[in-house]
Design a protein that fits this description.
The chain is α/β, with parallel strands linked by helices. It has helices at about 10-20, 30-45, 55-65, 85-90, 135-145, 195-205, 230-245, 245-265, 290-305, 320-325, 335-340, 355-370; strands spanning about 50, 75, 95, 120-125, 150, 160, 165, 170-175, 190-195, 270, 280-285, 340-345.
Length: about 375
């Protein structure tokens, strides 16, 4: 029994949608991308969606669209996947990290105001592990200091906060469609979401080599652009996955429910504090365990053919950040404490109860023996 950490949920509906595109002459810049943009914007409750080839590309376009550049500062979280911080570096701006709250694992708004300087341009918050950041408080701070708000909602498709969907809480937000996310667009994909027409128009142009208009003159380039386009087959799969979104989220909730049931009496760990859509299933070892214990447990699980992961290693402690910017252990203590004890368990729609039983049994045994 080899159990991967994650796995996409592809049915005949998606396969058929992709094959239909392959029968047409149009594989890029066609109707499927437009349809996917319409549907994902409607789902998130925003006016505009710009489909691109990855979540990272989407973040980069937002940084460009907001004209964040050399020596500007962006306040963001060290507890995230690397791209939410790298996108700031792409434009030679500076990520200013702020520690997280140990319950939600999101940016602690109380620490934000103390970090604002005349160079601060934006707050980039992440809905980490699909838990919404404290958008109400972040919005209050952004308004007070005239800062942009950026939402990295890569992990939070379907999550809600105060009756609104994640992806709708800022000047511009993103989703990612990498295969471990709630839905995928055939391997790679992302989208920019915004209510702001100027941001959307900039992104439509910049993803397509800086062309003047989406449907305009083929070779008129009015700005520095990129090839960040989403292929038609990817958009077609995205449309099909989005049609199944309620079923997909229900299946994820059911897997999480089974894990919760089977782990709730196990005192060595804390269960995930998840309030919304499910992206991953992350447990936390109790305080008495150290990072070496956690790493050993992950290795032992792998020896039993169960793939777990150490989401997330703090961004500020990644070698590139330590060497390049002088960050050190101890800079963001809550983030570090949390990240030393978290384990992502295998989590995907088609995970069977029998497999969950095997994972839970093995996990309990390995933790007891540590
Ligand atoms: C997955 C992810 C991204 C990047 O998405 P890609 O599509 O892989 O480029 C960005 N931020 C967070 C928090 C993510 O989890």
């Amino acid at each position: 029994m080899n159990i991967p950490l994650s796995q996409p949920d592809i049915t005949d509906l998606e396969r058929k949608a992709v094959l239909e595109v392959l029968k047409t002459p149009c594989l890029s810049l066609g109707p499927k991308v437009k349809e996917f943009e319409r549907e994902i914007a409607r789902y998130a409750g925003v006016k505009y969606a710009v489909a691109v080839n990855s979540g990272t590309s989407a973040l980069h376009l937002i940084i460009k669209a907001l004209n964040i550049k050399d020596n500007d500062e962006v306040i963001t979280t060290p507890f995230s996947f690397i791209s939410s911080s790298n996108c700031i570096l792409y434009e030679r701006a500076k990520p200013v990290f702020v520690d997280i709250k140990s319950d939600t694992l999101n940016i602690d708004p109380e620490l934000v105001e103390g970090l604002i300087t005349p160079r601060t341009k934006a707050i980039l918050a992440v809905d980490v592990f699909s838990n919404p950041a404290d958008w109400e408080e972040l919005e209050r701070i952004a308004k007070k200091y005239s800062l942009y708000l950026i939402e990295d909602s890569a992990e939070a498709l379907g999550s809600e906060y105060r009756g609104k969907k994640c992806g709708s809480f800022s000047d511009a937000a993103i989703f990612s469609f990498f295969p471990n996310k709630q839905i995928t667009t055939a391997g790679e994909g992302g989208v920019v979401l915004t209510d702001n027409k100027e941001i959307a128009d900039f992104c439509y142009s910049a993803r397509n080599q800086g062309r003047a208009q989406q449907d305009g003159k083929w070779l008129e380039h009015i700005r520095l652009g990129y090839n960040y386009r989403m292929p038609e087959v990817c958009a077609a799969m995205g449309v099909a996955q989005l049609e199944r979104i309620d079923e997909i989220l229900e299946r994820r909730a059911k897997v999480a429910f089974l894990y919760n049931q089977k782990l709730k009496d196990f005192k060595e760990i804390e269960l995930p504090n998840n309030t919304s859509s499910w992206f991953v299933y992350i447990i936390r070892l109790n305080q008495k365990y150290k990072q070496e214990d956690r790493d050993k447990i992950i290795r032992e699980m792998a020896d039993n053919e169960i793939q777990c992961s150490n989401y997330f290693q703090p961004i500020h402690l990644q070698p590139y950040y330590k060497e390049g910017f002088g960050f050190e252990q101890g800079d963001f203590p809550i983030c570090e404490q949390v990240s030393q004890r978290t384990i992502a368990l295998p989590f995907y729609n088609n995970l069977k109860e029998k497999e969950i039983d095997f994972i839970v049994k093995t996990l309990k045994k390995e933790i007891r023996e540590t």
